[in-house]
Amino acid sequence: MSGVQHITVGADEPEQRLDRWFRRQFPHVPQGRIEKMCRKGEIRIEGGRVKPATRVLPGQSVRIPPLPEAEAPRPAVATETSADPALAASLRQAVLHRDDQMLVLNKPPGLAVQGGSKLATHLVAGLAELRFGRPDDPRLVHRLDKDTSGLLVLARTATAAHDLAALFRSRAVEKVYLAAVAGRPQPAQGTIRYGLVKAGRPGEGEKMRWLHPDEVRGTEGAKHATTDFAVLEQAAGRAAAMALRPVTGRTHQLRAHMAALGTPIAGDGKYGGRGQENLGDGWGAGLGGAVSRKLHLHAAALVFPHPETGKQVRFTAPLPEHMARTWALFGWDPDPALEDVFHA
Fold first, then answer.
1. pLDDT digit string, tens, across residues 263-279
2. Which of 6, 251, 254, 282 is the most buried (most CB within 10 A)?
3. What are the distances in angstroms from CA 341 to CA 171, 219, 242, 337?
4. Residue 254: closest CA among 299, 313, 187
5. Is 145 a catalytic residue?
6. What is residue 283's predicted lDDT score, i.e. its pLDDT?
7. How far from each other are the two terminal CA atoms of the chain, in whole angstroms?
8. Residue 293: how many CA atoms within 13 Å on its side-chain side?
9. CA torsion sign, 265 to 321 to 227 to 205?
10. Each residue of 193-228: pLDDT tens digit?
11. Any residues with CB less than 8 A from the CB of 253 and at least 6 apart, and which?
12. Can you give the pLDDT at residue 79?
């Protein structure tokens, strides 16, 4: 491909990472090449230098340098499905709601939403299995961490994708998570306002570090973060069932905030390792015994205006198997009235 191009991000495209947007436009260009072009300043947004993780927004102009021509596609072998059969079946079973504008899934734990260099099985790889008669794949409008289960919304039209992404960005979506934590927070209900910033230590990936709200302004890259929390039930101070409502949507916000209170989420080795205080029995996020080592964090309820009708819709998702076993072990209610927790 010869010559420099300037492409305007479509008004119907959701906010997303630059590298992911780029790969959708030019699927033959590998990730390594995209990263190199960013480092050299060859790819720019509105004239400014960028990184692969820079967010692109509808209406922005992206500078595209000369690219190699795509190879002619090899003849495709006709198959009924292109996704892994197990993934396809899992995704179809996860559908809780379907209408003309959107799908709502109960994402299983351990399934990444998007892929990476060492991750071939992920939700995006199976989106074609969720077309249900549409000519194109449903679109992501938000995401969940790989080990977090629960409600995930997909848009079925370009207009719905734009509207839903705007709702999630504007905090018009109320999200309530269920979590089991080590120990019991004091007080039993409140709001956490610790700021968050990338830890920046080698090998820690996306791990975040929490800091006092007064330190956010003077810390490069730090962002304010707010989480409402409430203890629903407890087990003799050893563990507690929590309702968590993220007011902001920062990376690993709920996991970092609960660890900041000294009560990390059960199964969270990243924020509740052996160096993390556990106010119950055991160490960090490890409750031991019959409690699963999987992360105990579940997106349990969503409330937001429907993208077509504007009427409030509410969705709930049952606990995944490993969390249901923990709730049964401690005798906790697996279906609490979450709509009442933060609206008493």
1. 999 999 888 876 665 55
2. 254
3. 19, 34, 10, 7
4. 299
5. yes
6. 54
7. 60
8. 6
9. positive
10. 999 998 866 555 678 999 999 999 999 999 999 999
11. 196, 208, 225, 227, 246
12. 39
- pLDDT band at 118, cuts 50/70/90? low
Nearest by Cα to 275 from 291, 258, 262: 262
Q: Identify the residue whose tokens are 């996860």.
A: 94
Taking residue 50's Cβ as centre, other Cβ atoms within 10 Å add up to 19
CA distance 60 to 6: 10
Q: What is the mean pLDDT of residues 229-239?
A: 92
Residue 83 has pLDDT above 80, yes or no: no
CB 191: neighbour CB atoms within 10 A? 11
pLDDT 10s digits, 294-325:
999 999 999 999 999 999 999 999 999 999 99
pLDDT value at residue 285? 67
| 228: its two tokens | 């409402």
Catalytic option among 19, 84, 136, 145: 145
Helix (H, G, I), strand (E, B) or coil at 15: coil
**Which one has a higher pLDDT value, 279 or 111?**
111
Q: Cβ atoms within 10 A of the Cβ of 128, count?
A: 16
Alpha-carbon distance of 228 to 246, in angstroms, equals 6
Per DSSP, the residues of 118-175 read TB---GGGGGGGG-TT-SS--EESS---TT-EEEEEEESSHHHHHHHHHHHHTT-SEE
Strands in 46-111 per DSSP E: 48-49, 55-56, 61-64, 95-98, 102-107
CA distance 269 to 256: 11
Q: How many CB atoms lie within 10 A of CB 57?
A: 14
Q: Distance between CA atoms of 233 and 318, rounded to whole angstroms?
A: 17
For the segment 7-16, what is each residue's pLDDT rounded down to a tens digit?
888 776 778 8
CA atoms in the 13 A half-sphere facing the CB of 124:
16
The dihedral built from the CA positions of residue 221, 226, 231 and 232, taken in this order, carries a sign that is negative
